[in-house]
Specification:
The structure is a single chain. The protein is α/β, with parallel strands linked by helices. It is about 30% helix and about 25% strand. The radius of gyration is 21 Å and the shape is globular. The two termini are about 25 Å apart.
Length: about 325
């Protein structure tokens, strides 16, 4: 039996937000859960990695690993950048606006000045600064021993929820403070260090046969897990062909609205998700089951249809949207 796992980051709402949904949005949520008999909950991350549970799910399924994925080297791989065996972390410039985090993008000349200053701070700490596709990577010979809020969840996140924890947190904070001070003559910005790991990890070949996503981090993970490049495709094109077997789809339209608490944007994005869902269901000749997996702050809710066989004829799907869309369900 081939499954198509449809990941929906941000599809679970706080109860208060769910209760404020318009009748039209509630109807769309019900359509997404049509035919569902049971829901399986799973806590995947702690508060430090809140809102990034889908990356852990992917790391487990594609990479067959149980820890939080090393996003920095995965992103580096997705750019097809030169191989580096050093420890690597993402360095993210940001500003605080109305209490929320807004990542900073520099103009070309300003970026060169910023890079030169930060490179000097890094060298003084025995580290190196790398750049690719406008992103900053900090590399060094020793593993980074801290945990931090993942860079992909920073945009729009309340600044008070940003975390750096663990044994090496004090050392990381000291580096960030020195770097921010050095940048002050150029621009007043904050810095965040996160997503550390090494690019020389080894993964067993994945059993997943196709991946459909716009997320470069997920594409980097798929490449590391041995998926052929022609079986990894963006959402702007049809799902890529692949050998018979399971596939993973990531629809992340609800990811940012949930993280930022913007219910209006969430409701505006919902119809697009349902349109993509309906288009996906047209591939019934390719997959036996389509399994939506809704993600909230730390846990997932997998929506399961009735089991096949004679017993299923006597069952009627009866799971209500509150059972999976509300992000306060007890996770196992």
């Amino acid at each position: 039996m081939s499954n198509c796992y449809v990941l929906l980051p941000g599809a679970r709402l706080e109860r208060g937000a769910f209760e404020r949904l318009s009748p039209e949005s509630r109807a769309l949520v019900e359509r997404l859960g049509k035919g569902i008999e049971t829901v399986k909950f799973q806590t995947l991350v702690d508060d430090v990695h809140a809102h990034a549970a889908h990356y852990v799910w992917l790391w487990r399924v594609l990479g067959q690993k149980s820890n939080f994925p090393p996003i920095a080297p995965l992103l580096w791989r997705s750019f097809d950048a030169p191989h580096l065996s050093e420890a690597m972390a993402l360095l993210t410039p940001f500003e605080e606006k109305e209490g929320r985090i807004e990542p900073v993008r520099f103009e070309e000349l300003e970026f060169l000045r910023v890079f030169d200053v930060l490179r000097g701070v890094a060298l003084a700490k025995g580290l190196r600064l790398q750049s690719w596709d406008g992103r900053l990577f900090l590399t060094g010979p020793e593993d980074f021993s801290f945990e931090a809020t993942p860079a992909p969840v920073l945009p729009g996140l309340p600044a008070a929820e940003r975390r750096i924890a663990g044994e090496g947190a004090e050392k990381a904070e000291a580096f960030l403070k020195a770097a921010e001070e050095a940048l002050r003559p150029i621009r007043e910005v904050r810095l965040h260090l996160s997503d550390a790991g090494r690019a020389n990890f080894r993964l067993r070949p994945s059993t997943i046969r196709a991946l459909w996503t716009d997320d470069p981090i997920v594409r980097g993970l798929a490449v590391a897990a041995g998926l052929r490049p022609d079986t990894i495709g963006p959402l702007s094109r049809p799902m890529p062909p692949s050998p018979p077997g399971d596939a993973v789809v990531v629809f992340d339209d609800l990811f940012a609205p949930t993280r930022t608490g913007d219910l209006k944007a969430w409701e505006e994005a919902l119809p697009k998700v349902l349109t993509r869902w309906d288009d996906l269901l047209k591939l019934k000749s390719r997959f036996d089951r389509f399994l939506p997996i809704a993600f909230g702050r730390t846990a997932s809710a997998t929506l399961l249809p009735p089991e096949s066989g004679l017993l299923s004829l006597f069952k009627r799907p009866n799971v209500q949207p509150e059972a999976w869309c509300v992000d306060d369900a007890e996770a196992a």
